[in-house]
TrEMBL record:
It comes from Candidatus Ornithocaccomicrobium faecavium. Transmembrane segments: none annotated. SUPFAM superfamilies: Six-hairpin glycosidases (SSF48208). GO terms for biological process: carbohydrate metabolic process. InterPro entries: 6-hairpin_glycosidase_sf, 6hp_glycosidase-like_sf, DUF5703_N. Residues 18-278 form the DUF5703 domain. This is DUF5703 domain-containing protein. The lineage of its organism: Bacteria, Bacillati, Bacillota, Clostridia, Candidatus Ornithocaccomicrobium.
């Protein structure tokens, strides 16, 4: 049976009970949650990857509803989300609606067609129609409100534009300089632009044949065909009038027609699915896993080309209301910052899938944060290097609650050291990003960012070289944490493993600057040994050499970071049994959210273990949702991007493991499952493989023309 993406359309019949049952559309930057309520009204909740408020919250850009009369959806409808085409089709007996987020324009397009003429009314629901004040009461309000001297988020504006209606939010202030002050970084930004102040974003709807009336669009006369175009735009420092003029120009350039652009849109999605694919079948579990995989790949691609990285806690598709603010869909557990331990998992998946261009927003954010991260180290610790926080805003600062509010820090906090003990000595994240950058350079063949990425690596190494003492000629990592689980310790395994693979990877890189090469050469000779012990006759890896705080505070297995993300142990490598024995003795066993059991199991060739984990994970969507890849909330938020990314990465590794030169196909493949895949070794080299009834075939090919 020859499986293709066309076999995995998602279908649903009836109404949606809430926005949490919505279906996602996206073009890499602009998104929409779409649902039909019990009145037959269609809702579109828009989002964008750079819609940051005054308090550094990533919020929705607008909520619109479309009512048709006579109502063709009074009895519900059949929904088909065609992943192959990136399109949603809503079908009733005598009418249909098609929607897509145009792959080639910042626009969501809608086409309604009916057997008999229909009248339409499009309304804007301005749920941010008054200034909002926040204080930290729970994880859903994780923002900078506590330090911003009463700063609130300004109200949105709804207004008519030529041929349409618009809603936009303009930041009339910013928490940025208050955060700098709280984090002992006063004066840093005197000659730098504020990343939040004056930011403006929103959506404008245009429709030929509809007229503006009281900030709504209504039909001039019933028609059998109604076309709507929703344009999204973000900018910095503009007035709402300037923003509106620019969004109208977007409409003039790209038009309101939903038919003409659709062929190019579909072609872009088809190219995406043809370039890299995985299809698995053989039983119900295999089918469920494939559906989860392709739906997550779709969801990832809907948000992977924006100005900022994909948010681990919901991406741009959160659709939950604040209980205390009915109608407000901006709730996001853990707020606007990026947790490095969570965000990295999304990008390991993208790297393994050959989505090299999609890596750039993450790297660009990290590179842009370097100046403040370097200044932080110089100012607080008096040495060179950079410190990228584990919980970091897109502009390089800590979450204020993590660094500590003024009253918390007044109780004796050391300058530069966060009060949050979960991240106080957590340095592994920037090591992992540095290693990911080098792997990206090796696999992608891209050189445009090479020197900037090398400078990031150098600054990370300088921190580890100068922040810690030397003991008997070796770097002595203390105090550090072994992830969040062992929070004060010495010589933690994740940092040692990260330094080891990073320094080894540098030896294989081209055009390494002399300053970086000489630093790396010296540090290789100064690395401490991986912490290990013998338990019941078996050599195993340890989370750290010495535990100062002996209590576990989270549920990670740091000792297995030497398997993933830092591949010192695994298939084809020495001492595989050491890693397998360590995995078997792991303290925490979880197969959901950000937990890495599946990835580490497959890297060790433990076929049955990874299969069992993935079969369960594939069915763990949020019970409130209908879309298969709306996983969660798990530890974070629905749709949980760590859960889906881990699932994708583990499945890819079951079919192909490669170091960029050599490839190992089917390293952990169940005998009862069939598969067809196309996966990268590196840029320009792809492996196409099949396993049908136990017969495996593999061939190598180059990049597809035009893809």
């Amino acid at each position: 049976m020859h499986r293709t993406i066309q076999d995995y359309d998602f279908s649903y019949e009836g109404f949606m009970e809430s926005a949490e049952q919505s279906l996602p559309l996206g073009n890499g930057d602009v998104g929409a949650n779409v649902w039909l309520d019990r009145t037959g009204t269609l809702h579109l909740l828009f989002s964008k990857t750079d819609s940051w408020t005054e308090l550094n919250r990533l919020v929705k850009t607008g909520h619109f509803s479309l009512a048709l009369s006579p109502n063709p959806f009074a009895e519900g409808a059949r929904f088909t989300l065609c992943l192959a085409d990136g399109m949603l089709r809503i079908q009733a007996e005598k009418a249909s609606v098609s929607l897509y987020a145009d792959a080639n324009a910042p626009c969501v397009r809608l086409l309604a067609e009916a057997d008999a003429p229909l009248a339409a009314r499009l309304e804007v629901h301005n749920y941010r129609n008054r200034p909002l004040h926040f204080s930290y009461t729970n994880a859903y309000q994780y923002s900078a409100a506590e330090v911003a001297d009463g700063l609130c988020e300004s109200a949105d504006r709804v207004f008519d534009v030529p041929g349409g209606v618009a809603v936009c939010h303009r930041n009339e202030g910013s928490c940025y300089r208050d955060m700098l002050r709280t984090q002992d970084m006063e004066g840093f930004a005197e000659d730098r632009p504020d990343p939040l102040d004056g930011r403006i974003f929103g959506v404008a709807a245009f429709a030929p044949g509809l007229a503006t009336r009281e900030h709504a669009l209504v039909s001039r006369a019933p028609a059998r065909e109604i076309s709507l175009a929703f344009y999204s735009r973000s900018a910095q420092g503009e007035s709402s009038a300037t923003w509106a003029e620019a969004v109208c120009q977007l409409c003039d350039r790209h038009g309101t027609d939903a038919r003409q652009p659709v062929a190019a849109h579909i072609a872009a999605w088809r190219a995406y699915w043809e370039r890299c694919y995985v299809y698995v079948w053989g039983d119900e579990d295999a089918e469920a896993l494939t559906r989860a995989y392709v739906c997550q790949r779709y969801l990832t691609h809907c948000a992977d080309r924006g100005a900022y990285p994909i948010k681990f806690n919901g991406s741009i598709f959160t659709a939950h209301m604040f209980e205390e603010l009915p109608g407000n869909y901006d709730r996001r557990r853990w707020g606007g910052a990026y947790w490095i331990q969570n965000t990295r998992l999304i990008y390991w998946h993208l790297l393994a899938a050959g989505d090299y261009e999609a890596m750039v927003p993450f790297f660009r954010m990290c590179l842009d944060a370097m100046p403040v991260c370097v200044e932080r180290v110089a100012r607080h610790f008096g040495h060179r290097g950079m410190l990228l926080p584990e919980t970091v805003t897109f502009f390089g600062l800590y979450n204020d609650k993590d660094y500590g509010l003024p009253e918390e820090r007044a109780r004796g906090a050391r300058r530069g050291v966060p009060v949050n003990h979960y991240i106080r000595f957590h340095f592994e994240g920037m090591l992992e990003i540095a290693y990911m950058m080098l792997r990206y350079l090796a696999l992608s063949g891209e050189g445009a960012l090479r020197q900037e990425l090398y400078e990031f690596v150098r600054q990370v190494l300088l921190f580890f070289d100068e922040h810690f003492d030397k003991l008997d000629g070796r770097i002595f990592l203390c105090p550090v944490s072994s992830l969040e689980t062992w929070q004060t310790c010495a010589n933690d395994l994740p940092d040692i493993a990260g330094l080891t693979v990073l320094l080894a990877e540098l030896e294989t890189c081209a055009d390494v600057p002399e300053a970086l090469a000489s630093l790396a050469a010296r540090m290789r000779a100064e690395l401490p040994a991986l912490p290990m012990a013998t338990e019941n006759g078996a050599r195993v890896l340890l989370p750290c050499e010495t535990r100062i705080d002996a209590k576990t505070r989270n549920v990670e297995n740091p000792e297995l970071y030497a398997v993933f993300p830092f591949p010192l142990f695994g298939l084809g490598r020495a001492d595989l049994q050491v890693a397998r024995d360590t995995f078997e003795r792991r303290r925490f066993r979880h197969g959901f959210g950000w937990c890495q059991d599946a990835i580490q199991a497959v890297r060790l060739g433990l076929t049955d273990t990874v299969k069992n984990i993935l079969v369960k994970a594939a069915r763990m969507k949020d019970e409130r949702a209908i879309f298969p890849a709306f996983f969660g909330p798990n530890f974070d938020e629905t749709p949980d991007q760590d859960h889906g990314s881990n699932l994708c990465l583990a499945l890819i590794y079951m079919l192909l493991q490669s170091d960029g030169t050599n490839a190992l196909p089917f390293p952990a493949w169940p005998e009862s499952w069939n598969a067809r895949f196309r996966l990268p070794i590196c840029a320009g080299r792809w492996i196409c493989g099949e396993c049908v009834d136990g017969q495996k075939t593999v061939r190598e090919e180059g990049t597809l023309a035009g893809v």
